[in-house]
Amino acid sequence: MISQVETLYLIASFLFILGLRGLTAAHTARRGLIFAELGMGFAIWGTLIHPDIMARFEIAGFFETYKWILLTFFIGSAIGIAISALIPMTRMPERIALSHAFGGLAAALVGVSEYYREQVVAGHMDHTTMGAIGFEVLFGGLTFTGSLMAFGKLSGLIPGRNITWPLQNQSNILMFGGTFVLLVAVTIDPSNQILFYAMAAMPLLLGILFVAPIGGADMPVVITLLNSYAGLAASATGFALDNNVLIIAGAIDGASGFILSVVMSKAMNRSFRNVLFGAFGKVDEEDAAMAASGGERVQEASVGDAAMLLSGAGSVIVCPGYGMAVAQAQHVVGELAEILEANGTQVRYAIHPVAGRMPGHMNVLLAEAKIPYTSLMELEEINEDFKNTDVALVVGANDVVNPAAKHNPASSIYGMPVLNADLARSCIVLKRSMRPGFAGIENELFFAPNTVLTFGDAKDTLTKVVEALS
Amino acid sequence: MLEIFLGLYIFMLAAFVGYGVIKGVPALLHTPLMAFTNAISGISLVGSLVAAGAHYNNVSTVLGAIAVLCATINVVGGFWITDRMLRMFKKQDPKADAAGDAAS
């Protein structure tokens, strides 16, 4: 029986990696997904014939053995499908945060259940298993509450601003250190249940305290980090249960989250250490005072002016930002592009890595608006082309198009890679108001002589532009 | 003692393989990637199924059953939403080709 289980797990691991490989190109991605789904099927099949479950099956029969599994599996599937089928693409970051919470909780619960079985009931647990369970409960708990906080902030249930208190970093690090000491202590003495439950409770608090100080615009980094933690929790579960497919899948998930956090922190020009220790989201205070361009005036353009500029352009690059998601403007962006393209205008999209609230957020929204992915360009691909482009159309983006990042060392975003929207022959910025972006700094782009601003909700404005052009 | 080392070797190799493969995923697909790895990390389902089915004791069964619920939401929901996203990614449609080919 063991060899059958292991064979199925081996096939599952193979299919997971094969599936992941499919994701390296858009046209093979769906095939990859099918491989991974098959892999999951094999892993579940292998688990349902696990010796411990079969032993129960021999005694209690099919119904008694599988009733809880079937019931919860059925309810879980229904909830999972309902959320996934109904949630709008603009809310994808919330959905991902929520699922990290579920993943963390599942891992933590399995850890506690294992501890209860081996230590509390059977009265014996070896140190290695205890250490693995400790990590599992630590990462699982941290991911659970941290992701719930992230979810709350993204969905607006909790204020998105950074919540701060005195000695925040110091106390957080101290608590994290304390949790780690508890982990070591309980590994040395697994029989001490009070230590264990204290160690299990601390990460729950830590998750809340770690995410609380982080502002909404820094969520891409938080989500990717929590993704990584969820993977590590799953991997630790594998160590606790001697289950290789868990170790492998968890390691892959952890690596993925790690890569994405590095990509995100690079795109924000923050060091990884800076990101890990919660110094992020704090740039605003220093820089609110730095509103260098105070006296200058912006040039406002009416909807008609904007439509004129666009209809006369031979090439347009759209620079979307989180504002496009908030205004749900992606579909009307697609309509506008269709009209312009019918006119012979070349329309492309410049996607900054941290535009939006999670990696790849803008790509998914524009894909939803039926915009072919071949016109979605990454920053490096398109940044040289702005200078030969007639119009850069900025839809709800701010800091990612701020030229101050290129030449003003005093700016807090100095050094962050930005889209060269300022180099286009003219630039139209769609903006709700003159409020500065998350970093609290004025955007030099708005005051440039070749920039015009059209105020109002991006969706309304674009709808009117589309009407004017058609 | 040996088993833990075997596990660590597997972890290390899997992390490197994962790193190597995922490095190649274009930024275009980063959101589907997150949903996808999310579904895969629902593999902790494997651990919770045993806890829910083997009936070691009542506490383990209850905790395991809740864990199965959470993990299933991730597995089924994660695959579902990844597919929903990937279905939206379309290449150039033929009529726009003339205008867009230079772009791609």
Describe this structure in words.
The complex is a heterodimer of chains A (470) and B (104). Chain A is α/β, with parallel strands linked by helices and 470 residues long. Chain A is 61% helix and 7% strand. Chain A has 18 helices and 6 strands. In chain A, helix 4 (92-121) packs parallel to helix 8 and helix 5 runs parallel beside helix 7. Chain B has 104 residues and is mostly helical. Chain B is built from 5 helices and no strands. The radius of gyration of chain B is 20 Å and the shape is flat. Classes of the chains: A alpha/beta (470), B mainly alpha (104). The interface between A and B is large, with 125 and 90 residues.
User: How many helix segments of chain B?
Assistant: 5
Strand coverage percent of chain A:
5-15%
Secondary-structure element order of chain B, N to C:
HHHHH
Q: Cα distance, first to last residue of chain A? A: 68 Å
Main sheet strand line-up of chain A: 3-2-1-4-5-6
Rg of chain B is 20 Å
Q: What characteristic shape of chain A results from the CA principal axes?
A: elongated
Number of DSSP strands of chain B?
Answer: 0
For the largest interface, the chains and their residue counts are: A-B, 125 and 90 residues
Provide the β-strand percentage band of chain B: under 5%
Oligomer: heterodimer
Terminal Cα separation of chain B, in Å?
A: 55 Å
Backbone structural class of chain A: alpha/beta
Shape of chain B: flat
Features:
heterodimer; A: alpha/beta; six-stranded parallel β-sheet; 18 helices; 61% helix; 7% strand; B: 104 residues; mainly alpha; disordered C terminus
Could you give a short description of this structure?
By secondary structure, chain A is of the alpha/beta class.
Helices and strands in order:
The complex is a heterodimer of chains A (470) and B (104).
Chain A: H1 2-22, H2 29-48, H3 51-86, H4 92-121, H5 127-155, H6 168-188, H7 193-211, H8 219-241, H9 244-267, H10 272-276, H11 283-288, H12 303-311, E1 315-320, H13 322-326, H14 330-342, E2 346-351, H15 361-368, E3 376-378, H16 379-382, E4 391-395, H17 404-407, E5 426-431, E6 451-455, H18 458-469
Parallel strand pairs in A: 1-2, 1-4, 2-3, 4-5, 5-6
Chain B: H1 2-23, H2 30-41, H3 44-53, H4 58-88, H5 97-100
